[in-house]
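Example protein was shown:

_____
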Amino acid sequence: MVLDSEATQMADTLGSASGDGPDLLAIRDLSIEIRRGDRIVRPVSRVSLRLRRGETLGVVGESGSGKSMTGLAIMGMLPAGGAVTGGSIMVDGRELVGLPQSEYRQVRGNDIAMVFQDSMSALNPTRRIGDQVAEPVHLHCGGTNRAARRRAEEVLALVGIPRPSERMNDYPHQLSGGMRQRVMIAMALACEPRIIIADEPTTALDATIQAQILDLLDDLKSQLGMAMILVSHDIGVIAGHADRVAVMYAGRVAETGPTTTLFGDMRHRYTQSLLASIPTITHDKQDELYSIPGFPPDMALPMLGCPFAPRCASATDRCHEDDPQLTIEPAGHAYACWHPAAGPITRVRSRIAPATAGLGGSESVPRLRVRNLVREYPTGRSGLFGERRTVKAVSGVSFDVAAGETFGLVGESGCGKSTLGRMIVALDQPTQGEVLLEGDSITKMGSRELGRRRAELQMMFQDPHASLDPRMRIDTILREPLAIQNIGTGAQRATRARQLLDQVGLPASVMERYPHELSGGQRQRVGLARALALDPLVLVADEPVSALDVSVRSQVLNLMRRTQREFGLSSVVISHDLAVVRYLADRVGVMYLGRLVEIGTCEEVYATAAHPYTAGLLAAVADTDPLAAGRDGGTPIRGELPSVIAPPSGCRFRTRCSQATDLCAAAEPPLESISDTHQVACHFPLQPKRFEQHADLATT
């Protein structure tokens, strides 16, 4: 049946299968406006959601869909100029809309708490961890400072912070990303709220730490009897950890229902498109990723019809003219779509053209050779008269990259991937070892010769907003490398800039804009265009899509894949996302604490991981199939990375390895072959050697 937009009827119907008892949180017909000068942005329009005790509601959608703004409205923390213009937010029967700030402050912390996305920005860098966790206890629960600090130590232990009494005196910068996120969770739990809003709590974290944090939130929710709203743009995270899902688009709920029901029978075209655009470790590499065409609508402009219609291949005249209301099916599954479909999205498969240069290369000398690279940084003394300490960022890494080949580097943050990438393009000098480009040692070149060869080594950075000069227009940004290398006249450089924009799929009108006027995906395309300006032989891409929405990510990944094939680039792709590397790379190297622990073709490493660390990384990958939860996929990695100042003896992974023995502590395993194209550094590899001629290496 199709209902009208009566908020009460809709809110009472949605989620009816989620359990008995009254709602802990009920949002009905919520609308928000933000005034910015003469402009009015409407980020949320007529949103209705409900949350029961002990339940996890997953809210998913692209940036700008309204999911975070809904969470901020619940917390009474809308940005300057923002206001709730309609609807209701009720917590346990108490209306929050219109509540005076003096009363709202008692709700925050006591009844509702929020875990923010960027722990480094949310934590005060000038205050110790213990003081920050104790502050909400002292404000909301009263009591002495000593009692508040005692409670802070308790919740730090509860969220798995090792030696909490010692960590109480640390500052945020002294903790890893995973530890800082645990501190954020501890602050939210300090006053035992009934509702936790986790806003992108794992976006900036590695897959292993992400899995730990999400499991921690699940355990704490069950242990403390809380309800949780889990906000994410990663539909795989939502699939594995939510009881019910709400998919938001353009400030509205596009589809909602129980997780297994929604994922088993997606009805809205946007939900299907969102899932289809995610790279997976089982994706056929010969097929391009599906990408949603176009961009989300401008929330300051009036919308007619279905807001997704301009991007939907199934849209008709009715979709462009009439706004669809929620259609509600049994079990609380609802969707706002005039032409609903069932099952996975259907689309024409787009095959990727073969490379212009043969992968694996026919050259006698690889295009890029990395030989025994070591990078160590002095960090001062451990005390006034203590021993000098050294950060061992990269410790003896070697690999080759052939012409036209893409080599992937995966591993957790802090394993040395980015440092290695900077040494490859000569932005950092190794302590030992060398980098060879077509047989010539870049490391041993003088500054003048290196300046001439630098054009052949280019880098694509993680954050395009930070790597592009905000004071330069895009045409200047693209022409600058040509001017530095004295290539061409002014007119020729302008022509080359237009060609580059065309190659990365941007219109020539972009040339007159500044970086802040572009979307994240457009800025990353400009970053790729700038890297290609000098026709490099080697491109190093450092986390090139980690900051992008899943829909934009697929567009950029397809573009990078086509560019690699078209120009025969040799590429090194650095990422903690194993699915991204699986799609882009031909071979992959797995790094742990400065060392390569496994190298092989993507097919071998992903299908038959030989190192326990690699198997743990694969086990931590979020699965978009909620029915696959709990299947046998390896043992997830637990614990934090050891110190790079004093790494463990022997095998550096042994402190987190379930099968470590005394041998692992006594001797460091060499990188040895188990097949012609597969190497592993492990005393007890998960895969047997597949030929006998290397059997003697096991005794070294």
User: Anything to note?
Assistant: Confidence is low (pLDDT under 50) at residues 1-10, 13-19, 355-362, 692-700.
